[in-house]
Amino acid sequence: NSRTMSLLSQLEKINLDSVLGESDNARYVTSKILHLVQSQEKTRKEMTSKGSTGIDVILSTLEVKSFKNQCGYRCISSLVFHHCGGRRASVLVTKGGTQILLQLLLTASKDSPPNEELMVLLHTLLAKIGPKDKKIGMKARINGALNISLNLVKQNLQNHRLVLPCLQVLRVYSTNSVNAVSLGKNGVVELMFKIIGPFSKKNTSLMKVALDTLAALLKSKTNARRAVDRGFVHMLLTIYVDWHRHDSRHRYMLIRKGVLQCIKSVTNIKLGRKAFIDANGMKILYNTSQECLAVRTLDPLVNTSSLIMRKCFPKNRLPLPTIKSAFHFQLPVIPASGPVAQLYNLPPDVDDVVDESDDNDDVETETESEVETENDDDKDQHFKNDDIETDINKLKPRQELGRPIEELKMYEQFFPELSENFQEWDLVSKEPKPFVPDANLSGPIVVPTASEE
């Protein structure tokens, strides 16, 4: 019975007619709804409440091929980006909004040249609702919309207004490893390095999104190897040092952390760790971390740098005859030949631990994307160190008795409190004595006053 419901019913009738001449009427009614959505919280709640068909009507309006109703996109955008946007984005996903927006993106990309305003609106909406849809990466790949955002970035590198939402969508796509491999083959890794370098404090928001996208892409071993082969590890270290030197007021800590996340993703493979050491990365991160210790807000940089250095430091088996270990375990007998002698004859900087991180390549299968969840980004946030024992039971020292338990039972009568029996025992009858109150303690207890004392 409200004004909003009346307009939605009118729009629904126009959608059912689907006549070319009704385009102007649809634009007019949608603009009225947009005005109410932008100005009244009551309207926003009414359209996203349970059982409401408001979003369904707007989405069906967007599917009409006879006109491009940008008021409809702005109406959806106002609903999603206003307060409680996360909940409303989830409602849009459950209504099938992701599939509709991807189809509209595919249709809009066929125009030459594509409508910039429409592309900005579509990518902004997809970037917002993408984290709420666990299968958006698979849907984009099936619909053929995976490379649309990438091509827009390639063709409009200087148009930051369009590139920013496109990068946000690519960041969402890259959480799927199959998509990351596919985008990497189309040159997305090289494209990201064009955006993040050389050092510049202009468009820092674009820089931050590009670093997050690159970190997600480099979690793929195929992309990580591609970055190592092109010498991008040294470039990442150079960018980090530049930001460390110029960010004297620590205003761009998130960008510096984004660079470290990229280095952390690259060093997940053995080639990346070797390239990191060859580029003098251990010394660079150690020196920068020492300078960050005095500032408490830079603790995330120090922690991430420490994880990278521990991951890249050469690992050796015990016993260590070198100065790299605080403990020296000398074998009683060292054979003249054999694997033990070979370990002792290795140079001190050689990593003699078998590394299987490069043995399993990325599997480009459809089933892999099905089991991926939105928590994939958290898997590498905490580096698991195999050299640290976490089992509390194994860390507790085992106390062994010096005598058998049977011999110790003879002393049980002298320590009744240990057997949880607090009654008085008769040593002759070996039975508990009955409790008899003391006669001297009978009667009321009188507490003397100060004058009596």
Automatic annotation (TrEMBL):
Pfam families xrefs: TPR_CCP1_N (PF25571)
Biased composition range(s): Acidic residues: 349-378
Single GO MF annotation: carboxypeptidase activity
Keyword Hydrolase carried by entry: yes
Gene3D superfamilies per UniProt: Leucine-rich Repeat Variant
Origin: domain of life: Eukaryota
Residue ranges the record marks as coiled coil: none
Tagged with keyword Acyltransferase: no
The entry's keywords: Carboxypeptidase, Hydrolase, Protease
Region (Disordered): 347-384, 432-453
Protein name: CBPC1 carboxypeptidase
Organism: Serilophus lunatus (silver-breasted broadbill)
